[in-house]
Design goal:
This protein is α/β, with parallel strands linked by helices. The chain has twelve helices and eleven strands. The chain has a six-stranded mixed sheet with strand order 7-6-8-5-9-11, with helices on one face. A five-stranded mixed sheet has the order 2-1-3-10-4. α4 crosses α5 and α6 crosses α11.
């Protein structure tokens, strides 16, 4: 009897050992390699550090089951080459602003930010709960991609100028770095627009190749040292009221992932999407004060006549975008309808409160 127990126990132990031997390579084979390319330079304050943080977080959350290798702009491909690199399958994901791809399809702009568009809270609501993600999937899928939101900076500043802008006439002939549909609006007003990656803006501004630029907000802009070439810094701009950045994946890679792996990547993107916005919000006031007090930056606001001119041009741009294709019209119309729904409620709640709070407290 004891002998039979021993033999049975030995057999079970042997089976367990064999299973363990088989399990090790099986686990190793299950690991996913995720190569990420970015439009931001390495260790770039704000945007670049956020992208690096996201790449590391995916590996951390997956406990190494998804191993990420991160390449900043220019390390594997150029900043504006990341879309094609991922669509081709050479890399598995990019981190970028999807409005950089309006040359491929103008509706990509709606999945970063558009003139007179949604603020970040409104855009988040549209993407997550009002059908925006499905439209993004439809557009990205037509290029072999799957995108998720992975960052946001909130309402951006109107930009840096080497002269004051007191009327629409002051914009005519101006050379400015501004991408997306905001750049198209400026073009209609006589601005000569260019779309430069972040790492090339400073040198072009200092050399005079451009005379104005938009970037993000005080926290991100401070480290760019734009104040060395342009002293007039404009408050909220029409071009980028909010929205988000994209973690764009090769669609075949995404579809190869298990439900758990998809959930891990989605969770990491959602976490960083919130963190980047919160980080910018936490630091913008402090760094605006440094720009003004330490570097002599002069803060200005566009007057209502300039805003009205922006608005007229923006309406033309939206109509032209609609005329591009049925999908562009579908995305624009949904975006505009949801903007009015979401913005309408925020007007009678958050905006009314913040206006009255600031009046009462003298903010």
């Amino acid at each position: 009897m004891e002998r039979r127990k021993f033999i049975k126990g030995a057999a079970l132990a042997g089976t367990a050992a064999a299973a363990a031997t088989l399990a090790t390579p099986a686990i190793a084979q299950a690991k996913k390699e995720l190569v990420i390319v970015s439009t931001w330079p390495r260790d770039f304050p704000g945007l670049g550090i956020s992208a690096q943080r996201l790449a590391a977080r995916i590996t951390e959350l997956s406990e190494g089951a998804i191993t990420t290798t991160y390449f900043a702009a220019g390390e594997r491909v150029g900043a504006f080459d990341v879309f094609d690199d991922v669509a081709s399958g050479n890399s598995q994901a990019y981190i970028a602003a999807d409005y950089y791809w309006v040359g491929k399809h103008p509706a990509f702009a709606y999945f970063t930010s558009v003139p007179f568009g949604m603020t970040s809270p409104e855009w988040n609501a549209w993407i997550k709960f009002k059908g925006g993600q499905a439209l993004w999937d439809e557009l990205s899928g037509s290029f072999g991609l799957k995108a998720l939101p992975c960052g946001g900076t909130g309402t951006q500043m109107g930009g840096w100028f080497n002269k004051e802008i007191n009327s629409a006439d002051d914009l005519k002939g101006l050379k400015m770095r501004i991408p997306g549909l905001g750049g198209t609006v400026m073009s209609k007003l006589g601005v000569s627009t260019v779309s430069l990656p972040g790492g090339q803006i400073y040198e072009n501004l200092v050399s005079g190749a451009i005379e104005a630029t938009e970037w993000v907000g005080p926290y991100n802009d401070y480290f760019m040292k734009f104040y060395e070439a342009a002293k007039f810094y404009y408050t909220a701009g029409m071009h980028e009221p909010g929205g988000g950045l994209a973690f764009g994946m090769n669609q075949k890679f995404w579809e190869s992932l298990s439900d758990t792996e998809k959930a891990i990547i989605t969770a990491a993107c959602n976490e960083e999407h919130a963190a980047q916005h919160e980080e910018a919000s936490a630091n913008n006031g402090e760094y605006l004060a440094k720009l003004i007090n330490d570097h002599g930056v002069e803060l200005r606001s566009f007057n209502e006549d300039v805003w009205d001119t922006f608005g007229t041009a923006a309406k033309e741009v939206f109509e032209e975008t609609r005329n591009h294709s049925a999908l562009a019209a579908k995305i624009n119309d949904d975006f505009q309808a949801k903007l009015r729904e979401l913005g309408g409620f925020r007007k009678i709640a958050e905006i009314e409160f913040s206006n009255q709070r600031n009046r009462v407290l003298g903010i």
